[in-house]
Amino acid sequence: RVLPSEPKRIGDCCSVTSERRKNTMDIHEYQAKDVLSNFGVTIAPGALAYSPEQAAYRARELGGDSWVVKAQVHAGGRGKAGGVKLCQSDQEIQAACEDMFGKKLVTHQTGPQGKGIYRVYVEAAVPIEREIYLGLVLDRSSQRVMIVASQEGGMEIEDISVEKPDSIVRSTVEPAVGLQEFQAREISFALGIEPPLVQQMVRTLKGCYRAFRDLDATMVEINPLVITGDGRILALDAKMTFDDNALFRHPQISELRDKSQEDPRESRAADRGLSYVGLDGNIGCIVNGAGLAMATMDTIKLAGGEPANFLDIGGGATPERVAKAFRLVMSDQNVQAVLVNIFAGINRCDWVAEGVVQALKEVQIDVPVVVRLAGTNVQEGQRILAQSGLPIIRATTLMEAAERAVGAWSNDLKQATRVRAVQ
Ligand code: ADP
Ligand code: MG
User: Fold this and answer.
1) I need a surface site. Which of 14, 56, 249, 274 has the fewest CB within 10 A?
2) Which ligand is nearest to the CA of 237?
3) 306-338, pLDDT tens digit by residue?
4) Number of other residues whose CB lies within 10 A of the CB of residue 139
């Protein structure tokens, strides 16, 4: 998640897409806890279960007389959505699990479609005295890892920054030396940690920083980090995301991927070597390069439309690759118009045009298709489109392309321009 401290840039569309851009991998709470505990962060005893019976069995193994059953989904806000339940008996654990397994949990972070619950984490219930917020993020302006913390744990950082902005402590880490003891102590004092607990807090902070750095994380969030009645500091929740591009260096982390939690459209694209981002509008976008994708999204919004997704075909895309991209974009039920926007440097407009023609001949496409080509071999590309005999709407500038795409689906009179598949 993008922290509110981060400046919003170039229109709201850009910030939405950069938040949603999938160049990171999320893991579950129980996995993040396991990772962090290997770096010296203390957690409560807990175990994973795949069925209500197994959950009750796990609780008996853990011992004690109260437990918390926690739905494992890639999203926060589970507590308020019924995904975290305090239980005091076998029966309560089974009943809590019956309500979770196989259901979709909808929290403010999942989107309306929710995320499927296929595993739960059973954890010993902890007597909480204080809840602290602790997050580590990449701060783009200082180009450093930034530690963000607050005494107002349990609340989301977005709410803290609105309701209790003064409670937020921020501290950036100098990468050449890492998180220093004095710096960790300063953060602890700013959070009002009692002197006997400062050493534990320093260990927690240093552990989180080392996990972040050593594993190429993009975010670590412990909310809440709690202080218990008996003077322990425990990570009661944990969230980590990792940089996709660095996963090759951490096979033990890439194994933690859980595709059941990802947008199926995005994982299908990733499996085909294409990078795809699903959004909520109805104009499908095929572009080359993330920067052009951002500009395309913004221009669609400026023209009064909403992007349904964007698919980046990358550089040097062959006609086959473009056709594959088309099929993926069209598999999104929300798509009511397609905008192809290519600025060809390494790419070739003629190949892109061939790919578009190939896809339109193969796939049943009954929505308007707008194509804007610029750059290498543009004339050849235009000729291929024109000679195909397909009712492709062509545009010269990006603004014109966006207006045509938005106009094409919003204006029923333009029905005539709809492309019918030529089998
Ligand atoms: P989410 O952030 O998705 O809502 P959390 O793991 O933060 O999920 O749990 C929500 C709340 O439930 C926490 O703020 C904490 O108050 C409580 N909670 C979570 N785990 C435990 C536990 N083991 N013992 C006692 N309370 C817990
Ligand atoms: Mg939480």
Assistant:
1) 249
2) 1
3) 999 999 988 878 888 888 898 889 888 889 999
4) 18
